[in-house]
Write a structure and sequence with these properties.
The structure holds 2 protein chains of 2 kinds. By secondary structure, chain A is mostly helical. Chain A has 3 helices and no strands. Chain A starts with a helix and ends in a 13-residue tail after the last helix. Chain B has 2 domains: 80 residues, Four Helix Bundle (Hemerythrin (Met), subunit A); 59 residues, no CATH class. Classes of the chains: A mainly alpha, B mainly alpha. Chains A and B meet through helix 1, helix 2 and helix 3 of A and helix 1, helix 2, helix 3, helix 4 and helix 5 of B.
């Protein structure tokens, strides 16, 4: 597989996430779309890391080039886990205050 | 067309299909379940790239912990009825058009670049194994690793403060 397959896969996944954020109004589904976008970036990072590794391996068979890409995916997962816990706590608080998770009711700053 | 190509296209179709189901299901519980399917397929992609550690972490963290959290919140709010009020039809249409325009622009911009022909190493290569990742993580990236523990602590404190019944 060449790298463009992976690029187009993750671009498609990212755009699906964007369409989800723009068209849905349930806060939880919007949040899930954000997770989809994060995962699109993760796939792309891993694919680029393997591409870079293959290019460096031809010169030096014992290389470890490209390992940083996979480590950054690990750190993205760490940050995503923290983000999800805080975000869901905010959604629970919002539900407790306005008894809905519809983001269109969150317009109090407009008035 | 080898087994790797077949698996790649199969997993790609499954990822995109279930991601579309996530955003188009009316019921939030169904969205959560489709998102779990998406994460398992993404783990399959990682295994295909021989990033075994990330595949396992993806299953444990995303499909395990995060999705259970989502499902728990959806059940807690009793959202499984199909009660989502309908958004303005034109607004939905505009969102879909905007997303597809972004897709179109990105694909058109990336279609003909030369670097796109580079091969990706599938199935072999040992940089994704936990031994090598752990060596680099604890040697070169020790400080970010420790800082992420502080991030988790602050996320935990923030969650408790936000979720506390009070005021």
């Amino acid at each position: 597989m060449t790298i463009n397959h992976y690029i187009f896969l993750s671009v498609a996944l990212f755009c699906i996430g964007i369409v989800g954020v723009l068209t849905r109004r349930n806060a939880i589904v919007i949040f899930m779309s954000v997770e989809l976008m994060l995962n699109a970036v993760n796939i792309l990072l891993v694919a680029f890391s393997k591409m870079h590794y293959l290019a460096a391996k031809i010169i030096n068979p014992a290389t470890q080039a490209g390992i940083e890409g996979q480590l950054f995916v690990f750190f993205i997962m760490v940050v995503a886990a923290a983000e999800v816990s805080v975000g869901l706590a905010i959604i629970v608080m919002m539900y407790r205050n306005i008894h809905s998770v519809d983001v269109n009711f969150l317009n109090r700053l407009k008035h | 067309m080898g087994i790797t190509q077949i698996l790649f296209w199969f997993l790609t179709a499954l990822v995109l299909g279930s991601a579309l189901m996530v955003i188009f299901s009316k019921n939030p519980v169904h969205s959560v379940l489709w998102l779990i399917v998406t994460f398992f397929c993404i783990s399959g992609h990682y295994i295909l790239l021989n990033a075994q550690f990330l595949a396992i972490v993806n299953v444990i963290v995303y499909a395990g912990a995060i999705m259970v959290l989502f499902l728990f919140v959806v059940m807690l709010m009793n959202l499984n009825a199909e009660t989502e009020p309908q958004k303005n039809k034109w607004l939905k249409f505009a969102g879909a058009i905007a997303g597809s325009c972004l897709l179109l622009v990105l694909v058109a911009a990336l279609k003909d670049t030369d670097a796109m022909r580079q091969e990706v190493l599938m199935k072999t290569g040992d940089i994704g194994l936990i031994h090598n990742l752990g060596m680099v993580l604890f040697r070169d990236y020790l400080l970010p690793f420790e800082i992420s523990s502080v991030l988790f602590l602050s996320a935990m404190v923030g969650t408790v403060v936000i979720g506390k019944k009070g005021d």
